[in-house]
Every structure is written in structure tokens, then in C-alpha cells.
Amino acid sequence: MDYQNILTRREKGVGVAQFNRPKALNALNREMMGEVIHALEQFDADPDVGCLIVTGDERAFAAGADIKEMVQARPVDMLNNPFIDYWDRLLRIGKPVVAAVSGFALGGGCEFAMACDMIVASDSAQFGQPEINLGVMPGAGGTQRLTRAVGKALAMEMVLNDRRLSADEAARFGLINKVVPVETYLQEAIDFASQIAARAPVAVRMAKEAVNAAFEMPLNAALAHERRLFYMLFSTGDQKEGMQAFVDKRRAEWRGE
Ligand code: CAA
Hints:
By secondary structure, the chain is of the alpha/beta class. It is built from 12 helices and 10 strands. The strands form 2 sheets. It has a 6-stranded mixed β-sheet, sandwiched between helices. Helix 1 runs parallel beside helix 4 and helix 6 runs antiparallel to helix 7. Bound molecules: acetoacetyl-coenzyme A.
């Protein structure tokens, strides 16, 4: 597919998809969302890629859903628009997805980052859900993921009163994994992702699924699910190799099977 709104590349076993509508601060329009999800699905199927990154540019990860596309929309237009359904496809990506965030991560931009598995942010990043200023509210998971990440009190302030978080605050409140200098944020995110990409691939996928189940299942069911995934890993060559390598005091060589 020939992308018009994103850039893609592979580096150190990491597939990078970059929003590329800088003049609109990477506002998430329908076309760009379709392209980024397509690229992530391609990386997910690529055996040479072990971890994925979604990023924007230094000034903006994404300043939200494209407001200009929605001004005159009726409910049925929103319903028929696949825009928010793209988030469901993001959640079905099996390999870990890291959001490398710099600048604005607002509205749908913040929601997109939160739907990823981890967030590495530059020290200039700003997270917020300003939809209230437009007479609406978050519609792509913001009220739920933010509340689970930072708790009810702060989520209420952010969603009802446009309270924004700096990168340091977002790290302190547990929304993101780490804060790095803006000059090197993407490279640091790639290094972070490449460490995961070098690990046992099947175990990484199962582990991601198990952690995410904590947000979707009651505890008993999630614990049972975790146990089944754990047992299943004993069917892989990587489990035999990993444990034998430990016993032999050598480095394991993962085959992803
Ligand atoms: N949609 C469409 N265009 C946007 C946009 C958005 N979300 N955010 C910025 N842009 C455009 C601006 O219209 C402007 O375009 P023009 O040059 O053609 O006028 C360009 O990007 C640069 O923006 P500004 O001139 O406003 O830049 P700034 O530095 O003065 O302000 C900002 C930056 C504070 C991020 C401001 O642009 C802003 O508030 N943007 C909107 C943020 C927002 O409300 N996001 C939520 C969207 S709704 C949503 O996401 C719903 C959902 O839950 C799915």
C-alpha cells in the first residue's frame, strides 16, 4: 500500500509507523488512521519485526481526531465512519506496540497512545483530553483507559476540565513508562522497543495478552487465562532453549516457535 499520510521504516527488529500530517499537528483523520492500522498489521505479520512503534513528530504526536472532519457530522455519520473501529484493530495487534510521544497528545491522540501497550515520552510531551472545549467528550476510550491509568480524581479533572499532564506528571501518575530528552526521544524509543524485539517472541505475545487481560477480565478468569498461557509456553522450543541455556550458562537463541 502506498501511504499518503504516514511514514514507515524498520530498524533493529522494530517496525516504526509515523504520523505525517505535521501542518495539522497530526490530527487523526480517517485516511491516516486507516493507513497506520494497515502498517501496524503488516508489521505484526512480519517475522523480522518483534516490536512496533507509533510516533508523530517533535511538535505533535497527534492533536486529536480531525475536528474539521466532524464539524457537521450527525450521529449516523459517526456510526458509519470506521474511525473509532480502528481502535479495535489496534487492540488486536499481537506484538507489543510502543507509542513514542513528543509534543501534543490530545484527545484522540492521547487515546491512541493509551491504547498502545507502553508509552515513551519526550520531556516536551503534553497529555490531555480537551474534548470538553468542543462540546463533546472522549469517544475512543479516553474516559476508561485514563481512569484506569491515573485514577478517578485526576481523570475527572482531565476529562471535565481540560487538565493537561506534562511528561513528568504523566510518568509520576503511571500513565507512561519513561521520559527522555526531546532531542533523542525516537531513538530512545527504538532502543527500548528493540530490547523487547530481541526477546522470545511467543512468550512476549502471550505476556502482553496476559497483562492486557487485567483490564478486561475479572481477576479469577484472568488468573486462569494467565495459567493456560503459561502452560502453553511449555509447548515451545523457546522454553526448552531458554531453560537449557540458563542451565548451560550460555545465551539463549530464540526461534519464535
Ligand atoms: N483537528 C483538525 N485540525 C487541527 C487539530 C485537530 N484536532 N489540531 C490542530 N489542528 C490544525 C489547526 O486547525 C491548524 O491548522 P491551520 O493552520 O490550517 O489553521 C494547525 O493544526 C496548527 O494548529 P494551531 O494553529 O491551533 O496550533 P497552536 O500551536 O496554536 O495550538 C493546539 C496547538 C493547542 C494543539 C491546538 O491546535 C488545539 O487545541 N487543537 C485541538 C485539540 C483538541 O481539541 N483535540 C481533541 C479533538 S476531538 C477528539 O479527539 C475526539 C475523540 O475522542 C476521538
